[in-house]
Amino acid sequence: MKRLLKHLKKYTLESILAPLFKLFEAALELIVPLVVAMIIDDAIGGGDKGYAMILAGVLVLLGLIGLGFSVVAQYCAAKASVGFITSVRTSLFGHLQTLSYSDIDKIGTSTMITRMTTDANILQTGLNLALRLLSRSPIVVFGAMIMAFTIDVYAGGIFATAIPLLSVIVFGIMIITMPMYKRVQGGVDKILGKTRENLSGVRVIRAFGKEQDEYERFKQENDRLTSNQKKVGHISALMNPLTYVIINLALILLIDVGAIRVDSGNLTQGEVIALYNYMSQILIELVKLANLIITISKALASAARISSVFDITPSQEFGERIEGEIGASAVVFDNVALRYNEGENSIYGISFAAECGETVGIIGGTGSGKSTLVNLIPRFYDATEGEVRLFGAPIKEYTKEALVTKVSVVPQKAMLFSGTIRDNMKMGNPSATDEDISRALKIAQAERVVSDKGGLDGRVEAGGKNFSGGQRQRLTIARALVSDPDILILDDSASALDFATDAALRAAIKELKGKTVFIVSQRASSVMYADKIIVLDDGECADIGTHEELISRSPIYKEIYESQYKKEAAV
To answer: How far is the C-alpha of 306 from the C-alpha of 362, rounded, in Å?
Structure first.
């Protein structure tokens, strides 16, 4: 919680003024029953209409002043809560950017989205209400009790009995429901994850006719969440009727005692009305407080969930190295292995060296570990065994900025961001000129794509939805080239291109001088002209060599090549 509260420091003044002006408003409300009593006893009882009009004007004035206090309090609370949650979201997003792929895999994408949306909204609402009502409601409740004692000690005893009973109900329900709200939010995470999974894989689900199965799985999770929500809802729903019962019993007793006290001359009629008004104020404020407690319970649960993400320490630490050693190999894998989340090794025993200026092809069947291998080069993941070296130095010695500058990756899934084409091209190099971008587009065979979309100022929708798969792939390759990296990794990033475009792309990349290029592909034609080809089989390096060498000695590579050669020749 301390980690979150620091984001409220910028709004210290608003956080003080909001409850302060609510206290002023509460003080005015406590005066109103006394003025009403004076109207009944003095003005109406004495037959003085002028005095009654004056006191009525006082009531109107108190209402207007109270309205002013309320508006100021509302404004300050809204400004503080919105500013606070904006700062929390920004900080949370920044913290997530520091986490490695392994850390993100452990947390889960759906969990992170829930933290930044649902939990953040609940926390904002809770803070807003807390600033406005958390101090006001108790002041009105206890202030009304004190005022009741000043009017009549016997009547005040009724207040002193009712308030503790109400407090037991309110805080008892709060203690019971807080852990239940945490479970409900956990269920929301699962529902969001299931929904995201189904939307992402909707084509596969339909292709295999699994809609009903997925519906049943979703329904099971949804029913579990609904059951938890009903349980906490049933308990929370007890608050209003229980508080109303106690308050109304107190009112009945108050009227009975008041009537007897008026008859004996110890109380006036106006004072009984004032006591009744104070009890009504307590009823209203306790209902508000009850709802506030429920909201704050949810907000505290959400705050704990957000804090738990901040408590995750990034598993990767970076060094201070900026440059490598002159003349060293660009990339060296020394008996490297990697496993995800304490499972079995995805790759193991990988050893090879890629020299500066070489083109390295990586080929293998689906699930052989091709993407896993290249993900170690930009340090998306850290090797669990062995060592990866860039330009002669262990990869862990480099700064994060140095790795971003030296290595550019074009991932399997081509992703563009909303904005213009120019904005997307400049992501890796904000200082790039239009000439630099045009040069990269030419190499990536994407010049025509850009011209058809209206040039560099052409609009890009979120995810690049207004581009075809092949167009997105060419643009993402161009984006990687704009940053002018020393090492370029193409992770199956030409799978949607036709063979002619793919060949032209490889030829253009081959002309790049001094750059080490890794081409990951399932197409033999994409890697056969590489200086070195790494053949992976079930996470293990089966062989390394040129196309000719592997054809003659590697049965795995030969099988891949011959199975595709007929298809490629037919095309």
So the answer is: 41
